[in-house]
Amino acid sequence: NALYLQDVRGFSPLYAGLLTLPMAAMTALLPPISGRLVARSGTRLPLVIGGLGIAASGFLLLTLDIDTPLLLVGAAYVVFGIGFGMINAPITNTAVSGMPLAQAGVAAGVASTSRQVGSALGVAVLGSLVTAQLGASLTTGFAEAARPAWIVVIGCGLTVLVLGLVATTSWARSTAQRTAERFEAPPTPAAAAVS
Questions:
Q1: Of the chain's two ends, which shows fewer C-beta atoms within 10 Å, N or C?
Q2: How far is it, in rounded angstroms, from Cα 98 to Cα 41?
Q3: Residue 192: its pLDDT value, please?
Q4: Interatomic CA distance for residues 30 and 25, integer angstroms
């Protein structure tokens, strides 16, 4: 987005940052709301909203070109911010809920680390996709070169949506409960002797 706003559209870094501010605002404002939704009704609704938001922003950004109206660009950023802001609380809750209390901190740490690694890999992979497709000119070729990256974003959003629907079924919850019980159960004498 910084490349598009600064190099393709020619905006200053300050103006480009201001254009992405609505995305950052949604990412900052929505996690507490998402957390309340998770506490009240479970992880399904925030994951579905998050997946739909990320996928919808990818669809909107597929139309990105040098002349795309800033209202559409801003709307795509807001929709992405909504999606991204909604998924952190359910992911952390899901990681922690299947673990005994003694291991909840480790589970939250692993989820947070995974999120950070995923973000770094996402930037690297999407950047590689764009530069691999980029022709001679960044200004004229960026929009076309970025389309595979937006398709990956759509795929990620749809994956979150599907996982949100599948991982919140009664079967999935019972599986998580059985796993947590196995972690809490002390080893039997025979199992301790083998290890």
A1: C
A2: 17
A3: 53
A4: 8
CA atoms within 13 A on the CB side of 180: 18
CA-CA-CA-CA torsion for 5, 11, 17, 19, nearest 10 degrees?
Answer: -70
CA 58, CA 60: separation in Å to the nearest integer? 5
Contact 34, 22 (CB under 8 A): no
d(CA 190, CA 123): 48
pLDDT score for 145: 86
Work out the angle between the directed axes of helices 138-166 and 70-97 (0-180°, nearest 10): 40
pLDDT of residue 105: 82
d(CA 176, CA 97): 8
Give the number of other CB atoms < 10 A from CB of residue 145: 17
Alpha-carbon span 103 to 123, nearest angstrom: 31
The ranges of the chain with pLDDT < 70 are: 98, 136, 176, 180, 183-195
d(CA 113, CA 120): 11
> Residue 121 is encoded by which pair of tokens?
């890999």
Residue 69 backbone phi and psi in degrees, to 5: -60, 140
Tokens read off for 93:
């809750």
